[in-house]
Design a protein that fits this description.
It contains five helices and eight strands; from the N terminus they run αββαββαβααβββ. By secondary structure, it is α+β, with helices and mostly antiparallel strands. The strands form two sheets. It has a five-stranded mixed β-sheet. The radius of gyration is 18 Å and the shape is globular. The protein starts with 39 loop residues before the first helix and ends in a 5-residue tail after the last strand.
Length: 187
């Protein structure tokens, strides 16, 4: 029998190539600050801060500002709002005290943005594989996309069918009818 440590998904570091292998989506620099999710006043202050940033997601597409050598996926809150109305917003955490948010926009808004030359709209996989942004942005972009996608697909209570309300900084949906609490999968 083969040793479990010999399976191909366990790739060893390659010091001969100067590579330290790691999973790109697991090395987030954000402090998640889950304790702030229930404090709406604190979330509003974080969003109002000039240092706050938002990752803009429209369906399966991520909106990024074209740049050189790398593109910039982080918008100020004002820049994000100027792109179009938010379908949902999720608090991702903070980096050195500056709030980071996922800002969802309608897929139709993304289509309209394609006519503007200063933006690139692409999928998460292309961003990661092609190295279109600094790797520090990959974990929060993936997190924002996943939670915003969950919101888009869970607007109604699976127990009673009533429209749910977003609470806890976007990390829970509550049913005002049957009082059920719904959470995104975190696996």
């Amino acid at each position: 029998a083969a040793c479990p440590c010999d399976f191909p998904w366990r790739m060893p570091p390659r010091p001969d190539l100067g590579l330290k292998l790691r999973l790109g989506y697991t090395d987030s620099r954000l402090e998640r600050a889950a304790e702030r999710r229930t404090d709406n006043a604190a979330l509003e202050r974080l969003a109002a801060d000039r240092q706050a940033g938002a990752y803009v997601i429209g369906g399966d597409m991520i909106v990024i500002k074209k740049g050189s050598p790398l593109n910039d996926p982080l918008f100020t809150i004002e820049e994000a709002r100027a792109l179009g109305p938010a379908t949902d917003t999720v608090f991702l955490g903070h980096l050195h005290g500056a709030g980071r948010f996922g800002f969802g926009i309608a897929p139709a808004t993304v289509e309209a943005l394609k006519t503007r030359g200063e933006f690139l709209m692409t999928d998460l996989r292309s961003i990661a594989v092609q190295g279109l942004v600094d790797t520090e942005h990959l974990p929060p972009i993936a997190e924002a996309k996943a939670v915003l996608h969950w919101h888009a697909r869970h607007r109604f209570c699976p127990n009673c069918g009533a429209a749910t309300q977003v609470v806890h900084g976007g990390w829970r949906r509550d049913c005002p009818n049957c009082k059920a609490e719904h959470f995104p999968r975190t696996d």
